[in-house]
Design goal:
This protein has two domains: 1-46, Arc Repressor Mutant, subunit A (Orthogonal Bundle); 50-196, Tetracycline Repressor, domain 2, CATH 1.10.357.10. It is mainly α. The longest helix has 27 residues, at 122-148. The termini are far apart. The chain is elongated, with a radius of gyration of 19 Å. The chain has nine helices and no strands.
């Protein structure tokens, strides 16, 4: 297997191991067994299990940044006078759903980001903070564009974006605590509907 493909395989298997066993209970042997490789092979790519976790988090951060660049080049806002309030909320939910799909691409990633990686050390906390900032940045930029397009009343996009991302993280934690399936569509719809209350512009069409 080529080195890049092998590294991706190790990260995919490690993600599953960390999510199922917990970071502290998991060890390098568990990762190697899941990947079907020897310890020597893993050490060709990673120094220890924490460096594996760090790589998983950095991979997530890169996905978020790539989405930020892609969304910055898009224009999803037709004139507000032609759009109903329910459609505006649906557009917002669609945008949030794209963000959620990149960050929480599966239940394992959700568990690692919101539970297993939290509080491990300074380096991990720094990456988690960067992921948070990037997420807030995506939502903030989208809110600014919606406000400029006349979809939203004048508001503080950074504050609203921070509340939206924080609310999504709380919904994710609640799902983890209850062992309920993570429904990204429902999370996006609820978050979009929540921030729409009191923020939508009067220029939007009535239903």
């Amino acid at each position: 297997m080529r080195s890049e493909a092998r590294q991706r395989q190790i990260l995919a298997c490690a993600k599953r191991v960390f999510a199922e066993r917990g970071f502290h209970a998991a060890n390098v042997s568990h990762i190697c067994a899941a990947a079907g490789i020897g310890r020597g092979t893993l050490y060709q790519y990673f120094a220890n299990k924490q460096s594996v976790l760090t790589a998983i988090l950095r991979e997530t951060l890169e996905r978020v940044r790539a989405l930020m660049e892609k969304m910055a080049a898009e224009n999803l806002y037709p004139p507000p006078e032609t759009v109903s309030r329910s459609l505006a909320v649906a557009i917002s939910a669609k945008q949030l759903r794209r963000v959620l799909a990149v960050v929480f691409e599966d239940g394992d990633t959700l568990r690692i980001l919101l539970r297993e990686a939290v509080g491990l050390d300074v380096e991990v906390e720094k990456i988690l903070a960067e992921i948070d900032d990037a997420l807030i940045g995506i939502v903030e930029r989208d809110l600014r564009r919606a406000m400029d397009a006349g979809y939203l009343r004048p508001l503080d996009p950074r504050a609203i974006a921070t509340m939206v991302v924080g609310g999504i993280e709380k919904l994710g934690l609640a799902a983890l605590r209850s062992d309920a399936p993570v429904d990204l569509d429902a999370m996006a719809k609820e978050a979009a509907a929540l921030h729409a209350v009191g923020t939508l512009s009067h220029r939007l069409k009535d239903e």
